Amino acid sequence: MSEQNNLTLLSFVLPCYRSENTIETVVNEIRTTVKNRNAESKDGRTFDYEIVLVNDCSPDDVWGKIKQLACADKKIKGICLAKNFGQHNALMAGYAEATGDYVISLDDDGQTPASESFKLVDKLEEGFDVVYGYYEHSAQHLFRRFGSWVNKKMAEAIIGQPKTLKTTSFFIMKQFIAKEIVQYPNPFPYISGLVFRATQNLGNVAVSHRHRLQGESGYTIAGLIGLWVNGFTAFSVKPLRAATFIGILCAIIGFAAGLFVIYEKITVAAAPIGYASLLSTLLFVGGMIMFLLGLIGEYVGRVYICINQAPQYVIREKV
């Protein structure tokens, strides 16, 4: 840790999208939180901070607000991406600019409590490499809570998330983890997958969860499904193994059904020809074949895009 006079630098990284009217409130909360912690320090330990704000090509004027904040405070860095690359890509751009001993990720809408950042800091200093805040009482809609539950179960099965770990977008990591993450060169980053492959020394701490200061979540059903597909195909071949298992299972069912038809034809002379069952079987098998081909195609397509060196993000401007 790069400490001088018992000083620790915190880097707050926030991807910004449709947050023109909320980002200043979050920034002010970060300032107040660090100031209060330093005022309460009894051992001479002090914290400094930097705030990295990444405009993910937001349709509102959040970039104008970021420039105002950066001009007024040298501790604020602004990054403007050339197009909407997505939350995880925006975080990667922010991590590349972060220089702190500890890197804290949080949202731009006020739902993640910046005022409780030092809960994560204190837990991290118990010896963990990464600590996630988790919400005992979530303020998300039922749809988002269900999506988070599905994501957790799939992450446990496919990318090795510990079953006792609860992940959110509010987490802290040590500098060496952030440096390892930004080495990932491909255009499909999935932050949790990158964390899990870098370390198993993970912690949790309970934090409050608030309602958004303004607006609604930018994630739609299609967006959440795309995020899941991105994470699981980028960091695991288990879906391909599952496809193999499904193919073998369908083959066994088909073979067993064929034996049953032959047996019935021999033992029951007047057995009717099953048009409906035949059609159902063909539709089922055809559907499974198309599903498995689509899954394989997803992997092949990602390999093709990576070979063509599609950019992870493109920075239009910095302040």
From TrEMBL:
The keyword ATP-binding does not apply. One of its GO terms (molecular function) is undecaprenyl-phosphate 4-deoxy-4-formamido-L-arabinose transferase activity. Pfam families: Glycos_transf_2. InterPro entries: Glyco_trans_2-like (IPR001173), Glycosyltransferase_2 (IPR050256), Nucleotide-diphossugar_trans (IPR029044). The keyword Ion transport does not apply. GO terms for biological process: lipopolysaccharide biosynthetic process. Coiled coil: none annotated. It comes from the Bacteria. GO terms for cellular component: plasma membrane. The chain crosses the membrane at residues 217-235, 242-263, 275-296. Residues 11-181 form the Glycosyltransferase 2-like domain. Keywords: Cell membrane, Glycosyltransferase, Lipopolysaccharide biosynthesis, Membrane, Transferase, Transmembrane, Transmembrane helix. This is Undecaprenyl-phosphate 4-deoxy-4-formamido-L-arabinose transferase. It comes from Hallerella succinigenes.
